[in-house]
């Protein structure tokens, strides 16, 4: 079974074009599941396909519940187990998919954390525009909100992905999928100022000329002080620091700017299908989580549309 797990991960990586983060998550979840099944096997024998059944899956989910794992975490692990089970069926190791016989835990979806328009304006103005790194941070925040980027998509941007005159951005999304995104004039202005500073940062970088690997050699758009690609961890830390300076809301991460992007478009009447394309969601059901509205919106909509309001 462990050998088949390695083959399954290769299948995800090369046939499904899954990202390294997805493969790592599947590896962690499935290794945990197989270790649980191995502990249930009698007589210390090796783990075989017969041990991969619906009873073992239910027992594993029960153990996760007793351990205090959230329903979201359990549902994610079940999804990984189901994918692995379908792969084993296609490979001929199982006659039927045992995951199909197990109901998924009920997931209570929370409203995505987001900022209102006033809070976004305050956040975008937080970086110090008098320093090169401050102007870099302002350009990042503007682009985050202007195009609804994922964190991984922002840090993966290269100079060649930016069409400043046309205000368009080529984004490398999940699964290697590319999409073209527009951005506004304000973001274009901050990017233009940052690109002037970028040359200065690159020239003054202590590690200039160092090999940054094949991906980094593509000339990253956003640089750290050493002249290399700015990491996702660094961007996450920067965004959270600026949020602390401007907002009292908790749980505001770089991804919350993406939530704010989608929420504000919906509030102004944007089509859900168009927002799906902008966000790069493969299913519209993922985009529907942004259709939450507050009481003020409901009241305003009621007064505008009900015949007797």
The rounded Rg comes to 23 Å
The beta-strand count equals 3
N- to C-terminal separation? 64 Å
Proportion in helices: 55-70%
Q: Whole-number average pLDDT?
A: 86
> What low-confidence regions span 5 or more consecutive residues with pLDDT below 50?
209-216
Descriptive report:
The chain has a 3-stranded antiparallel β-sheet, with no helix packed on it. Helices cover 56% and strands 4% of the residues. β1 (162-163) and β2 (168-172) form a beta hairpin. With 309 residues, the protein is mostly helical. The chain is globular and about 70 Å long. α6 (132-147) crosses α11. The N and C termini lie far apart (64 Å). It has helices at 2-14, 20-40, 54-67, 71-90, 117-124, 132-147, 151-155, 185-204, 213-216, 232-246, 254-267, 272-279, 284-287, 295-305, and strands at residues 162-163, 168-172, 178-182.
Topology:
Layout: H1 2-14, H2 20-40, H3 54-67, H4 71-90, H5 117-124, H6 132-147, H7 151-155, E1 162-163, E2 168-172, E3 178-182, H8 185-204, H9 213-216, H10 232-246, H11 254-267, H12 272-279, H13 284-287, H14 295-305
Antiparallel strand pairs: 1-2, 2-3
Provide a concise account of the structure shown:
With 309 residues, the protein is mainly alpha-helical.
Write a concise keyword list for the protein shown above.
single chain, 309 residues, mainly alpha, 3-stranded antiparallel β-sheet, 14 helices, 3 strands, globular
């Amino acid at each position: 079974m462990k050998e088949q797990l390695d083959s399954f991960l290769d299948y995800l990586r090369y046939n499904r074009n899954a990202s390294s983060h997805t493969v790592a998550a599947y590896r962690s979840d499935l290794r945990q599941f197989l270790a649980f099944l191995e502990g249930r096997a009698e007589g210390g024998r090796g783990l075989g396909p017969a041990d991969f059944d619906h009873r073992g899956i239910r027992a594993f989910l029960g153990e996760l519940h007793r351990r205090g794992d959230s329903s979201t975490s359990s549902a994610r692990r079940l999804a990984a187990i189901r994918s692995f089970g379908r792969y084993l069926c296609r490979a001929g190791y199982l006659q039927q998919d045992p995951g199909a016989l197990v109901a998924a835990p009920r997931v209570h979806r929370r409203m995505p954390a987001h900022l209102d328009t006033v809070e976004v304006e305050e956040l975008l103005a937080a970086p110090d525009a008098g320093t090169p790194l401050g102007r870099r941070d302002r350009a990042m925040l503007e682009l985050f909100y202007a195009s609804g980027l994922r964190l991984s998509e922002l840090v993966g941007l290269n100079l060649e992905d930016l069409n400043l005159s046309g205000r368009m951005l080529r984004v490398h999304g999940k699964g290697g999928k590319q999409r073209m995104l527009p951005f506004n004039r304000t973001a274009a202005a901050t990017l233009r100022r940052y690109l002037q500073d970028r040359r200065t940062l690159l020239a003054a970088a202590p590690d200039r000329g160092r090999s940054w690997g094949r991906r980094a050699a593509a000339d990253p758009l956003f640089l750290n002080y050493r002249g290399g690609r700015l990491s996702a961890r660094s961007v996450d830390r920067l965004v959270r620091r600026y949020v602390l300076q401007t907002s009292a809301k908790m749980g505001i991460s770089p991804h919350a700017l993406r939530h704010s992007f989608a929420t504000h478009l919906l509030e102004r009447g944007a089509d859900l299908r168009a927002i799906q394309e902008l966000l790069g969601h493969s299913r519209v059901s993922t985009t529907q989580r942004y259709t939450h509205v507050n009481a003020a919106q409901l009241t305003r909509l009621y007064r505008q549309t009900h015949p007797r309001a």
